[in-house]
Amino acid sequence: MQLADLPISGPWGERHLLGLERLTAAQLNTVLDLAAHYDQVTNGGTERLSVLKGLVVANLFFENSTRTRTSFSLAARRLGADTVDFTASSSSLSKGETFIDTALTIEAMGIDLVVCRHRTPGAPHLLARHLKAGVLNAGDGTHEHPTQGLLDIYTIRKHCGKIAGLTVALVGDIRHSRVARSNIHGLVKLGARVIVCGPSTLVPNEIRQLGVDVAWSLDDILPEVDCVNLLRVQFERQRGAFFPSIAEYANLFGMNGERIKKAKSNLLVLAPGPINRGVELTPDVADGPHSVILNQVSNGLLIRMAALSLLAREHQEKQDAA
Ligand code: NCD
């Protein structure tokens, strides 16, 4: 299958995927539907397609990553692209080269798409302004992580059959979580009710402006929730102590076997990972029947295949028009 033959269900028109904030519900559905198409076509297999044959995808990771980097690399290769992996510690950045010069150098090697993770919010946006290549944000500081938001939403849609009308709780470190922000933008646009829940120090007041409800007690909201997404406490982004102890956090906001009995019998438990067993959730929940954590990882590959394809198509159309 070629790029031009892909079944695109709705509007797209974006050269970059920098966040879910500025996408419409129709654009979000276009990505989700294309991921569903890849789900059908690949059927869990590892067969290589030729949709991105001849294109080069560069992974520029300036912050640690296991699943996102691997997932983007695999997604690109499944579609027949060549990939270049770049990590900050092994690059000329450590010799003093600037972020933009590094990116321009990489682009001069003929790269079509750039996947960028950076601890500074807005770093991928800066790249998008300087490069001709399409840019995908793989997490920028506390700002957004659009493909994680999309894969969480895809997983919910696949298991629940819909998004509109569901109640989804995002639990934990809302203040520092880019995953929370991308989930909120996507879920709210697609018609879900979103409740954010965590220690008051980790739930900023302004978050209500994004159209969510705020709750301080997980036990109070659990009976009305269809899906719960357990976010990791982002210790590496925190300056100061936001709660007295990890044990107290786990006791109030961790999902465990006792707590899950208070929830709907078909509650869906998600976590973007990496998970801290015993903090955000106990092993019996992480490995139990409600958990879709590993499905999220598999779905991440499909979402990244869809996102790469849509941007590559846009990139190609621009080149053809030039
Ligand atoms: C998330 C991230 O990096 O923001 N992880 C991921 O992409 N799989 C969430 C996290 O680190 O807690």
Could you characterize what this model shows?
- This protein is α/β, with parallel strands linked by helices.
- The protein has two domains: 3-144 and 298-317, Aspartate/ornithine carbamoyltransferase (Rossmann fold, 3-Layer(aba) Sandwich); 146-297, Rossmann fold.
- Helix content is 38%, strand content 14%.
- It contains eleven helices and nine strands.
- Strands 7-6-5-8-9 form a five-stranded parallel β-sheet.
- Helix 2 (67-78) links the parallel strand 1 and strand 2.
- N-carbamoyl-L-aspartate (NCD) binds at residues 67-68, 139, 145, 148, 178-179, 232, 272-273.
Oligomer: single chain
Tell me the helix content.
Answer: 25-40%
The side-by-side strand order for the widest beta sheet comes to 7-6-5-8-9
Q: Over all CA atoms, what is the radius of gyration? A: 19 Å
The major sheet is characterized as: 5 strands, parallel
CATH topology of the largest domain: Rossmann fold
Task: Extract low-pLDDT stretches.
Answer: none
The CATH architecture of the largest domain would be 3-Layer(aba) Sandwich
Strand content: 5-15%
In N-to-C order, the SSE pattern is HEHEHEHEHEHEEHEHHEHH
Bound chemical compounds: N-carbamoyl-L-aspartate
Number of strands: 9
Q: What is the total domain count?
A: 2
How would the global form be characterised?
A: globular
Number of helices: 11
CATH superfamily annotation of the largest domain: Aspartate/ornithine carbamoyltransferase
What structural category arises from helix and sheet content? Answer: alpha/beta
Structure summary:
With 322 residues, this protein is of the alpha/beta class. It has helices at 25-42, 67-78, 99-107, 123-130, 146-160, 178-189, 218-221, 246-253, 257-260, 283-286, 293-321; strands at 56-61, 82-87, 113-118, 134-140, 167-171, 193-197, 213-215, 227-230, 268-270. The chain folds into 2 domains: 3-144 and 298-317, Rossmann fold (3-Layer(aba) Sandwich), CATH 3.40.50.1370; 146-297, 3-Layer(aba) Sandwich (Rossmann fold).
